[in-house]
Amino acid sequence: MPASADFVQMDLSAFLPMSRKGGRIMQHPSDHIFERTRSMALPWTVLAAAVLGWSAHANVAIAAPGTAPVKPMVIGGEDAYQGQFPYLVSIQRPGQDGMEHFCGGTLIGPAAVLTAAHCVVRYTQGEPDRDPADLSLVVDRAVLSDARTGKVRGVARWNGTYQIHVHPGWDASKGTGIDVAVVQLDASVADVPVMRLPTAGSDVLERPGTLLVTAGWGNMSGDDFLPATQLQWVQVPLLAPWECSFAYPGPDERFTFNARQQVCAGVTGRDACQGDSGGPLFARMPSGGPAVQVGVVSWGFGCALTGFPGVYARLSNPETHLFLSRFVRY
Fold first, then answer.
1. Looking at the domain assignment, is residue 145 inside a domain?
2. Most buried by CB count within 10 Å: which residue of 133, 172, 214, 262?
3. HSE-up of residue 160 (Cα within 13 Å, Cβ side)
4. Model's pTM, two decimal places?
């Protein structure tokens, strides 16, 4: 089977940029790029169908039975069935017992995964706070773990290359700005539908009260980590910009709502939580057409608390739209 076929999974080195490990981040005319190449690990024949994944030292792979604990999910949600949200991506990293989910993403093009910048770059005072770790991505798989053992399915690896593009408007040293990044794959993911993106400057899907959907494998409780085996989804109402600013007035820049760059949504008892970062806030079309992504899970105070909605990177922001147009066709 050619490299461009089906369910490619590859190595993600998320906590960049460590050139001594073979990757590099550089200033690009329109973004920051992290690039890594990888070597052969397991034969292509072991790759299973319908899953996309990566690992940080350079390998692309597909899901196969294996190990690794999953962290919990969306608060106030319900189980998603297989195929309901095929474009949802689980970003995983090594844990004590194998690979574990820690951030979400969305397939927005045959070879492009949209996630949050803070999921793939972390800095402490402008410097990387950890070495790159082997990460994996899994797509079109509602159930990540075995209900009996709680272990995540393992991944087989295939050699390939990838790049992580971070929006230039993201200030990693402060944790502020446009919290958007794209993982560009070296091969397409076949037979999996992609998420549509909004038109630049359009607020049709951003009207207060609009019911949108967020989904992911993050915490199901704001108090602790509850084991979960299945993708969760929940409907949340979009709030007016003034309501978001009232909830997050500052003065700390990291927790000040920016109406140009962000939207907020949620209600008491229904919200995204830790582990959902990078996942989508999206609208399901009544006509049954493609879903349209409005935002990327970014931050919030607690999870599903009264008066503190979730904050999402706003994808109709012209600056964000221009950045994403390099990877998808609108």
1. yes
2. 214
3. 31
4. 0.74
Name residue, tokens 């053992």.
149
The pLDDT tens digits for 188-217 are 888 889 999 998 888 889 999 999 999 888
Q: Which of 6, 134, 179, 271 is catalytic?
A: 179
Assign 271 to helix, strand or coil.
Answer: strand
CB atoms within 10 A of CB 269: 12
Residue 277 is among the residues annotated as catalytic for this protein: yes
Sequence-ordered list of residues with C-beta below 8 angstroms from that of 157, at least 6 positions apart, any chain: 9, 10, 11, 38, 40, 41, 42, 55, 59, 60, 61
Question: Which secondary-structure segment (H or E) carries 36?
Answer: strand 32-37
Which listed residue (101, 118, 167, 321) is catalytic? Answer: 118
Q: Which tokens go with 123? A: 């800095």
Residue 1 lies in a domain: no
* Distance from C-alpha of 316 to C-alpha of 126, rounded to nearest angstrom: 28
Q: What is the mean pLDDT of residues 255-284?
A: 88
**In the annotation, is 179 catalytic?**
yes
Structure tokens at 258: 């920016």
Q: Is 99 contained in some domain?
A: yes
pLDDT for residue 75: 66
Residue 58 has pLDDT above 60, yes or no: no
CATH number of 308's domain? 2.40.10.10
